[in-house]
Amino acid sequence: MTRPLVLGLTGSVGMGKSTVAQMFREEGVPVFDADAVVHRFQGPGGALVAAIETAFPGSTGREGVDRASLRDRVLMDDAARRTLEAIVHPAVGAERQLFLLEHGGCPLVVFDIPLLFETKGDALVDRVLVVSAPPEVQRRRVLARPGMTPEAFARILALQLPDADKRARADHVIDTGVPLAETRAAVQKLIRTLHPG
Q: Which of 53, 95, 121, 145 could form a disulfide with 116 if both were Cys (CB 3.0 to 4.6 A apart)?
């Protein structure tokens, strides 16, 4: 049985990964969005809310997990982060397998996984695409996010493989520090490369 070519999409915080993922969708390529799955599991009535509340008392409420509060608790605490990952990663992995079964007849699918290299997710994919932008563009994008501080940005960066290392390990790199039309053209060219015809 043939299966789709699996393209892993990743990039450091603020590099435009979500924008590029949407471009793949608009070209008809199914995209598994790991972050969206986590949001669903942590939202109101989400499958992981109870387990997260047990591990991190006071981190949830009627709206599900208070993501900003939980982020602050785990960013500075490696043991807490590992505890959270042990709850979240297996659940996301199960959803990813269901997605692959659902789209088994497609020639190409994308796994949008923010920490692809950091979680050894590159072993799950056939090719890796890294989205990248100049550091000043990245910083401006991230600090424009609600509730983001320079300190939190620095801590997030410290937990991620440096952009240069990601680019060195990638099969493909797309620049998002250029006009959107150029990025879209690069996405379209990559799709043609991976799935000629």
A: 121
Section 164-191 average pLDDT: 96
For 57, the token pair is 């008392």
Q: d(Cα 87, Cα 52) in Å, to the nearest integer?
A: 7
Residue 60 tokens read as 């949830």
Residues 6+ apart with CB under 8 A from 197: none
Q: Is the pLDDT of residue 121 over 90?
A: no
Residue type, 30: P
In angstroms, rounded to a whole number, what is the distance separating the alpha carbons of residues 105 and 134? 37
CA gyration radius, the chain: 17
Mean pLDDT of the chain: 92
Tokens representing residue 129 in the block: 């695409």
Answer left, alpha or beta for residue 62, where phi above 0 means left and psi between -120 and 50 means alpha: alpha
Domains of the chain, CATH where assigned: 1-30+108-197 (3.40.50.300), 31-102 (no CATH)
Task: Indicate the pTM of the whole model.
Answer: 0.85
Residue of 5, 32, 188, 180 whose CA lies nearest to 104: 5
Res 144 pLDDT > 80: yes
